[in-house]
Design goal:
Elements (H helix, E strand, L loop, with lengths): L2 H26 L15 H34 L2 H10 L5 H34 L7 H32 L4 H24 L6 E3 L4 H12 L7 E4 L10 E4 L6 E5 H6 L2 H16 L2 H23 L3 H6 L7 H11 L1 H30 L2 H14 L8 H7 L5 H23 L1
Parallel strand pairs: 2-4
Antiparallel strand pairs: 1-2, 3-4
């Protein structure tokens, strides 16, 4: 085992152990006593159900992680990469078709291996806890559409990356970066009107109290709304959500029908105010810039290792190739990705607090936001007492109790200011 193999193997095992520790600590942090903040919102039966849901999901996640890791090591050390490379080369295609075939087979194999776990998660676990509304037809239709989009969009992009690294010389990484950035921006623009409607039905919000309240709030914060839509989330799950997507004239705000069903008008406006807060605070732009810089760094480092013989030796592959180098570098890059993901989670949690603050200050009804967060937690059977280490590694949003405290603090400060003004 050479140095590259050792680094990759140790990183994969370390990441796995880190996940085990985090999951164990998270389960140990469960509290039998319902937090006072949720008294009157959660009943004892639902609270116990939320904890059982976490236990079941955790055990299942650890099982899938273990199987994935074992299969990867078996494929690796039994010479699977060399066998597959020899197989795709035997067809005598050019380097780019061969590369597309190599990567497609790996992705197809991974998808087939994951399929039973996805089916079990959806139709056994989510069904057991009352979330699943997906039919088998919808489930497989979603997968088929995903595969079709991957072939239509991903294959040409991957072919372009392979071509650049084979023909564009030392600046190939720069051309790949520019190309991928352009495609990403284009997809961000097209997703709300072209891609997302392939999976869900977007219906314009009907005229009424909710639409008037949303438009009045949007006007008060000078946010031009080009579309408020209801998404048929109940087609797949009882879980609720809302999101903002797109940019420019193509931006949309979407409310799950399950969210509208379970919340009052003030609560729904508060949720939308939070989403608008992300836009106003430039969180979406910041994420796009950070993602673009990360992609540039990734391609530059990739260019340094892409045809490194020692890296190919680590995977027992004889012939150098750009397509196999992409896969091997992805595994080598995993420790950097782990560190970056932790920093991105911290950044995301900060942004969530800022969006909550924006919503509270501009809408002026902190309790509406609190009420919405509580209902979302109950409806989604969220863990109310996650362990700090688990939050550190995995949470893109702060725990609900921390968000409630922060919102109340902002609202309290606003009341003091108003009282001082009146006095």
């Amino acid at each position: 085992m050479n140095l590259y193999a050792l680094v990759i193997a140790v990183t994969l095992i370390f990441s796995y152990i880190l996940k085990l520790v985090a999951e164990y600590l998270n389960l140990s942090a469960l509290q039998k006593t319902l937090p006072k903040e949720f008294e009157g919102v959660y009943d004892a039966e639902s609270y116990a159900k939320s904890q059982e849901y976490l236990r079941v999901k955790t055990r299942f996640s650890l099982l899938t992680e273990t199987i994935d890791l074992v299969i990867l090591f078996l494929f690796w050390f039994l010479g699977g990469f060399e066998f597959l490379d020899s197989f795709v080369r035997s067809f005598g295609y050019g380097s780019i078709p061969t590369g597309l075939l190599f990567i497609s087979i790996l992705m197809a194999a991974q998808g087939l291996l994951n399929l039973p776990f996805e089916l079990y998660s959806t139709f056994v676990i989510e069904e057991r806890f009352g979330f699943n509304k997906t039919t088998l037809a919808t489930f497989f239709a979603d997968h088929f559409k995903g595969l079709a989009l991957g072939a239509l969009l991903g294959a040409p992009l991957l072919a372009g990356i392979l071509w650049f690294f084979e023909n564009a010389g030392p600046l190939a990484w720069l051309w790949c970066w520019l190309c991928l950035t352009g495609v990403t921006i284009l997809l961000q623009y097209l997703a709300p009107s072209v891609i997302m409607p392939l999976f869900n039905k977007f219906t314009p919000l009907e005229d009424g109290d909710l639409k008037r309240a949303i438009l009045n709030y949007a006007e008060s914060v000078k946010f031009p709304l080009t579309g408020i839509y209801v998404i048929d989330g109940s087609k797949r799950s009882t879980k609720a959500n809302a999101f903002f997507t797109g940019f420019g004239k193509n931006k949309r705000i979407a409310l799950y029908d399950t969210l509208i069903e379970n919340n009052t008008v003030p609560e729904l406006v508060a949720v939308l105010a939070h989403e608008i807060g992300h836009y106003k605070k430039k969180h979406i732009l910041q994420s796009l810039v950070i993602g673009t810089l990360h992609t540039g760094l990734l391609f530059y480092l990739l260019s340094l290792f892409l045809t490194n013989q020692a890296l190919f030796d680590a995977f027992f592959v004889t012939n150098l190739s750009v397509y196999a180098g992409l896969i091997f570098f992805g595994l080598l890059y995993s420790p950097v990705e782990l560190l970056l993901s932790i920093f991105m989670q911290i950044f995301s949690r900060k942004n969530e607090f800022e969006a909550d603050r924006f919503a509270t200050e501009t809408y002026g009804d902190g309790e509406a936001m609190v009420g919405a967060l509580k209902k979302l937690s109950v409806n989604n059977l969220s863990n109310l007492t996650p362990h700090p280490f688990y939050i550190f590694l995995n949470y893109s949003h702060p725990p609900v109790l921390e968000r409630v405290q922060a919102i109340r603090k902002v609202a309290g400060g606003m009341c003091q200011v108003q009282n001082a003004s009146v006095g």
